[in-house]
Design a protein that fits this description.
This protein is α/β, with parallel strands linked by helices. It has a single domain, classed as 3-Layer(aba) Sandwich (Collagenase (Catalytic Domain)), CATH 3.40.390. 44% of the residues lie in helices and 17% in strands. It is built from five helices and four strands. Strands 1-2-4-3 form a four-stranded mixed sheet, with helices on both faces. Helix 1 packs across helix 4, helix 3 packs across helix 4 and helix 4 packs across helix 5. The longest helix is centred in the last third of the chain and has 16 residues.
Length: 153
């Protein structure tokens, strides 16, 4: 049995905020290893304006959001776009650091890239995300919906 290749992660920073691409890459690679997934994913860290435009163009919702995910294909798993501005507001509201919130959003977006959908799966994604957050991020939180800023995830 051959070992899985590490997830290939391409990070594009379209923000002046100080964020660690290496940290987010580690989170995504750990999630991929835990889920036994190989492939490539692109992570874009941008502004509310950037994410609002993507949300409007691809989902028909003309508003900023914290994270958007776009499924890809076999090897290119997909793309994740995170608004660092919204992440900063979420972090403050939830009593987390920006880095911790970005970890949570990257993980959440990655699960969507893999085809999980918390809006239609009777809680399967939420349970998986809680388990991964405990294992990979050391969080004892209940998961999405525990705070007002997380209610829409």
């Amino acid at each position: 049995m051959s070992a899985l290749a590490p997830l290939q992660v391409s990070v594009q920073k379209r923000t002046t905020a100080r964020v660690s691409a290496a940290r987010l890459t580690r989170v995504l690679r750990a999630a991929a290893a835990a889920l036994k997934v190989e492939g490539e994913v692109a992570l874009v860290l941008g502004s509310d304006r950037l994410v609002r435009g993507l949300n409007r163009d691809y989902r028909g919702q003309d508003q900023a959001t914290d994270v958007l995910s776009f499924e890809g294909g076999a090897e290119v798993l997909g793309d994740i776009a995170i608004s660092v501005e919204t992440a900063r507001r979420n972090a403050k509201a939830l009593g987390r650091s920006l880095a911790q919130e970005l970890d949570v959003l990257a993980l959440h977006g990655f699960l969507h890239v893999l085809g999980h959908d918390h809006e239609t799966d009777q809680g399967q994604m939420n349970r998986l995300e809680r388990r991964l957050r405990r294992k990979l991020l050391g969080e004892g939180v209940a998961g999405p919906g525990t705070g007002a800023a997380e209610a829409g995830r």
